[in-house]
Amino acid sequence: MTRIAYFGPEGTFTEMALLQCQDLAARGAMSVPGFDLVGAERISAPSQVAALQMVSDGAADLACVPIESSVEGPVTPTLDALGFGAPLQIFAETDLAVAFSIASRVPLAQARTVGAYPVAAAQVRAWLAVNMPQAQVVPAASNAAAALDVAEDRVDAGVTTALAARMYDVPEVATGVADVADARTRFVLCGKPGPAPARTGSDCTAVVIDVPSRPGSLALAMAEFALRGVDLTRIESRPKRTVFGSYVFHFDCVGHIDDPAVGEALRALHRVCDELRFLGSWPRPGGPGTAPVDPGDSEVWFDGLRRGER
């Protein structure tokens, strides 16, 4: 049986994202070569890093972890684990609308403490200031743990998920809570390196690069994509942890490693970078950016020139 670790405990948005992946797989809309997503065993892990480490250690086949929030930006523990840890690869992704529930056994106006995972607290700060100004925010270990803290009377209210509120039998006194409407978070399924899923024509490719420490190195690396018409959709810098002021860069681009333009860009990057880590090519239906141009017409034209045709 396929084992999938996820950032737990039960009731978190990450478990909800994993359940969504399994539902997509059941409908034939998602797959990871060699693994049964539908019948997979779900294994809770205490952190994103722990979930990914379970894959590296062989305790799980895949891991489901958040990688980017439309409100808070990159999930840096995930980026760092993928960028510096044992080699892992992204095989699939999904995204989830993120709106919270306030779970409590007392009315909002009577709550003196509200438990919240720090990332969640940042996404509902304004709502809490307006609707629960008297409540002190108390850090929770996760979104689901905030509901458990209410159930066990450690706090009066919790910023949590609807799934966790039901799981711990705590009433939802407010739903759809978010400072930013339509907030979403991307989640990825990661495993040990292997063949990428087949090209679909609506794909994403991710790499981590370490460029030489000289003027223009990053610009030259980015130019390898631009010159080939490959759209970069995300660039993040992360400290290398070895020398102060030195960084690696995470690139996401539109396209698949089997797209000629993307393949050419990756080969060129390998020549100019000190190190390049391939994080995968996978389907991303409806993702941002413009698909790379198929160079087929220019290849036909060039072959004609070589044959003496004008």
Notable traits:
single chain, D-Maltodextrin-Binding Protein, domain 2, 310 residues, 3 domains, elongated, 5-stranded mixed β-sheet, 31% helix, alpha/beta, Alpha-Beta Plaits
Architecture overview:
- The chain has 10 helices and 15 strands.
- About 40% of the residues are buried.
- The chain has 3 domains: about 1-95 and about 185-195, 3-Layer(aba) Sandwich (D-Maltodextrin-Binding Protein, domain 2); about 100-175, Periplasmic binding protein-like II (D-Maltodextrin-Binding Protein, domain 2), CATH 3.40.190.10; about 195-310, Alpha-Beta Plaits.
- It is elongated and about 85 Å long.
- It has helices at about 15-25, 50-55, 75-85, 120-125, 125-130, 145-150, 160-165, 215-225, 260-270, 295-305; strands at about 5, 40-45, 60-70, 75, 90-95, 100-105, 115, 135-140, 155-160, 170-175, 185-190, 205-210, 230-240, 245-255, 275-285.
- Helix 2 runs parallel beside helix 3 and helix 8 (about 215-225) packs antiparallel against helix 9.
Unreliable stretches: none
Instruction: Say which CATH homologous superfamily of the largest domain is assigned.
Output: ACT domain
Mean pLDDT: 93
Beta-strand content: 25-35%
Q: Give the number of helices.
A: 10
Helical fraction? 25-40%
Cα Rg: 22 Å
CATH class of the largest domain: Alpha Beta
Task: Please name the CATH topology of the largest domain.
Answer: Alpha-Beta Plaits
- What is the domain tally? 3
End-to-end separation in angstroms reads 59 Å
Q: What is the N-to-C order of secondary-structure elements (H for helix, E for strand)?
A: EHEHEEHEEEHHEHEHEEEHEEHEH
Structural class: alpha/beta
Number of strands: 15
Keywords: Amino-acid biosynthesis, Aromatic amino acid biosynthesis, Lyase, Phenylalanine biosynthesis
GO molecular function: prephenate dehydratase activity
Pfam families: ACT, PDT
Catalytic activity: prephenate + H(+) = 3-phenylpyruvate + CO2 + H2O
